[in-house]
Amino acid sequence: MIDFFRCYLLTFNEFFLLLQRKFINIYPMKKIAILLVAYLVCVALHAEERHITFGELPKESKVFILTHFKDSTLSEISLERSASLTLYKVELTCGLKMQFDRTGMCTEVSYKKGEVPDAVVPKKILSVVKANFPKCRIQKFEHNERMYEVDLDNDITLTFNSSFRVVDIDK
Q: What is the CA 29 to chain-centroid distance, rounded?
């Protein structure tokens, strides 16, 4: 039997070839299902989360924190790493949480007790929120390459495309 606990040391292609040799007479769909489950188990077993120092953050994330939150105190910094994803999570003593990708770009800022600072949110998104929801505060802002998402304190979530146009309003 294959040692599934050490398979994360193999690349996916090596893993596929190894399983293919062992299960050559299994029907193709069963083979794919077995491969997928085995690979996901290996990835899950290899995931790790550990606490790190401010100095271990990528340069871009350090600049972001010092620019927008220089007067705040850091509470916790952690690195979450799996086979396909690396995330840096930063929490301030006031309760504000930030998340950075592997390059150090901020992908999420959330603040349940207060408002996400205006400087963190793109101006076009901020103007849409202020014009349509003037009494609401932004409690969470997140984005990736394709979209931006803003959670307001009245439980409305606004989704914007990469051109800052509203594509969805979730109540």
A: 32
